[in-house]
Amino acid sequence: MTARLARLTAVPAIALAATAALAGPASAADNTRSSLSWPTTDEIVAVCDDGAEIGLGFDLVRNVHVFEDRDGTVVRESRNVNYTGTFENFATGERYEFQGTRIVTFDFVARTFTSRGNYRTVTMPGAGVVLHTTGMYVEDLDVEGLFHREAGPRLDEWTAGGTEAVCSLFGL
What we know:
With 172 residues, the protein is of the alpha+beta class. The protein is built from 2 helices and 9 strands. Strands 1, 2, 3, 4, 5, 6, 7, 8 and 9 form a 9-stranded antiparallel beta sheet that branches. It is elongated, with a radius of gyration of 22 Å. The protein starts with a helix and ends with a helix.
């Protein structure tokens, strides 16, 4: 075997051994796929100046991956979520749909919740982007609202200016 061939053969073997050695004790124990729906009537997210109430609902598909340590204790759960969201003006029945994707990870060892992806990008013809929350944020699992870090734009129904943006979808 030539020296070059020996190196080419050894590199993948070393990489495989290193990957196995560096892999944490957690392994995926349970993977599930499910479809879920929440009607717009479950949550009012905005009350517009004219008193109109706007609801928000979802139809989603999520893949859930549960990771356990060697003792069988759940150490992490990751959810890959693809959804259609619907804002609805309850006064008129008018609806506005958008698409979203995110990967949500609950790390029970580090005690963090991480969200990555396109949480909310809502555009309107002639107006452009109305709501835009993308990127990543890491939140403490034990203290609600305690953020460790954020990256990316954040304007959705829950942030300052969000109510006005949601109402604008319906010309209110």
